[in-house]
Amino acid sequence: MTETALEPEAAGGAAFLSHYGRAIGLAVVLVIMGLALFALHQLTREVKLQDVRSALSSISAGRIALAFAFATLSYFALTIYDVLALRIIGRPLPWSTAATASFTSYALSHNLGFSALTGGAARYRVYSAAGLDGPDVARIVAIAGGAFWGGVLFVAAAALFFHDGALAIGGMHISRVVCLAIGTAILALFLSIFIPIARGKTHVAIWKWDLPLPTMKQALAQIFFAALDLAG
User: Is the pLDDT of residue 11 over 60?
Assistant: First the structure.
């Protein structure tokens, strides 16, 4: 089929999306919500309201307040993921915009699952309204995800180094020496993240996709806020 013959089909597809795009988007959201409600029903059908009340009454008000405070700290740190990612891709936006995108994205993905779809859609809606395009949003998601996993490596290594004695996991007991060895391996993997940055690289190609790298200062800030998020 020639290029000329394809043009009417492409135009027809664009017109179809333009006309029915909002309805399709709404349908997708409703399907996801339906699946999430079904999953929630399956998970909670054995839970009784009286049991929930009894469990809550056994927790002091001070501990519940601390839980809210640490959750707030965690979600604040999550907003900085997006603030830094926007700076790394060279498209800085006000904190309020980044915070809106981050909070809605993580609130949806943490509670509904399907993070690539639910969280990504929330980010795209906020950032596209602010003038960013799809590739920009994809880069933000990738950079924020990288920051999170960098924080996981750092916190895991620190936990293994500072854990006193053997570590019990799922019925297994890992000796202190093995904990230190695993912590050292994780730390080495964590430090390898900084090698391209230390060599002055500013971009990395992933499957023909260009992804900007943070500066050393930005990378350290990413790890700090990721660790703060995980600690919260």
Answer: no
Q: Which residues pair with 173 in a beta bridge?
A: 168
DSSP code of residue 161 = H
For residue 46, the 8-state DSSP code is T
Mean pLDDT value across residues 197-214: 82
Residues 6 or more apart whose Cβ sits within 8 Å of residue 158: 183
Q: Which of 157, 161, 144, 162 is nearest to 226 (CA)?
A: 144
**What phi and psi values does residue 209 have, to the nearest 5 degrees?**
-110, 125
CA distances to 146, 169, 199, 213 from 210, rounded to whole Å, are: 15, 40, 18, 10
Written as six digits, the tokens of 51 are: 């049991």
pTM of the model: 0.72
Rounded to whole angstroms, the Cα distance separating 180 from 163 reads: 9
Q: Which residue blocks in the chain are alpha helix, DSSP H?
A: 3-44, 49-57, 61-88, 95-112, 115-129, 134-162, 176-192, 195-198, 216-231
